[in-house]
Design a protein that fits this description.
mainly alpha; 2 strands
Length: about 70
């Protein structure tokens, strides 16, 4: 599979999750492993989604309950 195909499939899967109500954040190891991409690429894909669909999704900072660390979620 080419890099472009991998990117398109990963973004498609991320969009499917977003539409179903799933919050996406770059530290989500389970989703990253499922998609087979690293954290840096995952962050870029989140930025791509944020730029392409400005009014469709909310990009916010939240504190994760188990670490109390602030993360940006989509």
């Amino acid at each position: 599979m080419t890099k472009a195909e991998t990117k398109v499939l990963a973004i498609y899967e991320m969009l499917k999750r977003l539409v179903s109500g799933y919050e996406i954040y770059a530290q989500d190891v389970v989703l990253r492993d499922e998609l087979g991409i690293d954290e840096r690429s995952f962050r870029r894909y989140i930025e791509d989604i944020k730029d392409l669909f400005k009014d469709a999704f909310i990009y916010d900072t939240k504190r994760m309950p188990y670490t109390q660390r602030a993360v940006k979620t989509l």
